[in-house]
Amino acid sequence: IIRGYQRFSGNSRVMPEQEQKSTTHFERVGMVARWRPVHAGHLPVLQALCQCATHALIGIGSSNRYNFRNPFTLDETTDMLRLALAGYENYTLIPVPDLDDGPRWRLMLLDLFGPLDCFVTANPYVASLMAADYTVVRPVTLVPEDERIAVDGSMVRAEMARGDGWKALVPPEIADYITARQLDERFRREFGLQTLALGTIIQ
Questions:
Q1: What is the mean pLDDT of residues 135-161?
Q2: 117 vs 4, which has greater pLDDT?
Q3: Per-residue model confidence as pLDDT tens digits over 96-113
Q4: pLDDT at residue 3, rounded to an integer
Q5: How far apart are CA 119 and CA 20, in angstroms?
Q6: What percentage of the chain reaches a pLDDT higher than 90?
Q7: Inter-residue contact 122 to 148 (CB < 8 Å)
Q8: What is the pLDDT of residues 150-159, one digit of tens each?
Q9: How many Cα atoms occupy the beta-carbon half-sphere of 83 within 13 Å?
Q10: Which H or E run contains 76?
């Protein structure tokens, strides 16, 4: 974790999608997501982060939360990310807690991440917070179109609440990690009904 940096200014902006190139190489790139759990849609993004940069800073968002949207601990999430990034060493995992205060969160993130060539996020609110400090790109632009997988965390957690269908939505090593520790059973016991009820309300 780097401190005492000079913040980007001046030409920092959100880069238009048509200008973003998956072949661009960066010295330092950063991204924050919750990764709960690491799923098939995450895998090509994580690999692209390490492939497109000399060093990737990967933030574990909501690191201080344990609830139906964040049903794995920080240690468990860290383990899953390391499994997904097996073979790569050019990354640092950084816990990023929720503060329930966007401006304060932005300052914290700048302190945690320091200078970056670009910041990667799919969250429009986070993009708006960080656009004055970093060039912001969407994760999908780092991944070739034929390698993109349309899976998100809500889908995986909903399938986990229903039964075993989630296993097809995560990398095999992540499925093995979760089942070996019975984390799927724990999730259903603690958050299954809440997750299913939320899905019913949204529908």
A1: 96
A2: 117
A3: 999 999 999 999 999 999
A4: 28
A5: 12
A6: 85
A7: no
A8: 999 999 999 9
A9: 20
A10: helix 74-84
Distance CA 182, CA 94 (A): 26
> Which own/partner pairs from 189-193 qualify as long-range (CB within 8 Å, at least 24 positions apart)?
190/68, 190/71, 191/67, 191/68, 191/71, 191/157, 191/161, 192/160, 192/161, 193/161
Tokens of 203: 């529908």
Q: What is the DSSP string of 108-167?
A: HHHHHH-S-SEEE-S-HHHHHHHTTTS-EE-GGGGS-GGG-----HHHHHHHHHHSSGGG
* Peptide bond preceding 37 in cis form (omega within 30 of 0): yes
Indicate the pTM of the whole model: 0.87
Q: CB–CB of 60/90 below 8 Å? A: no
Residues across the chain: 203
Interatomic CA distance for residues 202 and 107, integer angstroms = 33
